[in-house]
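SECTION: protein entry
WANTED: fold as tokens:
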Amino acid sequence: MKTIGVNTKLASIIGTDIGHSKSPAMMNAAFEELGMDAYYFPMNIQEEDFGTVVKGLSKMNYMGLTITIPYKLEILSYLDEIDPLAKIIGAVNTVRIQDGKLKGFNTDGEGFVRGLEVDGGLIIADQTFLVIGAGGVSRAIMTVLASRRPKKIYLANRTVEKAEEICEKLNREVCPCCVPLPLDCNLEPFAAESTVLINATNIGMPPMEGKSPVDLSLLRPDLFVADVIYNPRRTLLLETAEKMGCRVVNGQSLLLHQGKIAFQIWTGKEAPVDVMARAVFG
């Protein structure tokens, strides 16, 4: 058991239901591997206490926070500075605390896109994307993808107005490459044009395990398929894609790469990714 002393640098994940989080095991394995006097632990915080807790932590020996549901928007009110991409995304999931000042970042999008680049070997600028879902994680991924200036990004969502809002903002502020689509339209011509399909929804994880966010007939062997879900490791979408011969990346890539980025933001050190991966996935 780690002994916490007066000089121990602290970090926490803050949310309302985080008993399932793998971040503490991942981060503490990294601190131990590098011999750092640091400790990361989960904190379930009630919504009425969130502001008080954040203000208090900024006065303690904290170097950073991971912010999860439902506080990725609320944290914005307590920041002294925000990273430009996080500002465009409009949500923060990582906070660096330095000299009592809080700076917000969003590592979800960058983590996922780095996974496509590092684990998938993709050059983003050469790709055409079909992204399914327009929630918070999708917005982060879309923003980072657009910043890499791909050929095109199709964004399909059940409520097309949400897709339109995201695409309009990114086309105006980042890169004019985004096209909104209603999820119930005929996606076949857009899938045929795309080189990468990304599921940015929770369809495929419990209680929707065994379901796919799109018609599986859209898959073809030369399509790269990525999923933000890491539990289960192989959703129906990825399982079918893999059997067809597609290259695939799952949500483990997102978790590890965003963790690596957060670690670097807090410590200024290169994260031991292999150690972090073993701590979480064995």
Summary: Residues 121-246 form a domain with the Rossmann fold fold (CATH 3.40.50.720). The chain has two domains: 9-107+254-281, 121-246. Residues 138 and 200 are 5 Å apart (CA to CA). The two ends are 20 Å apart (CA to CA).
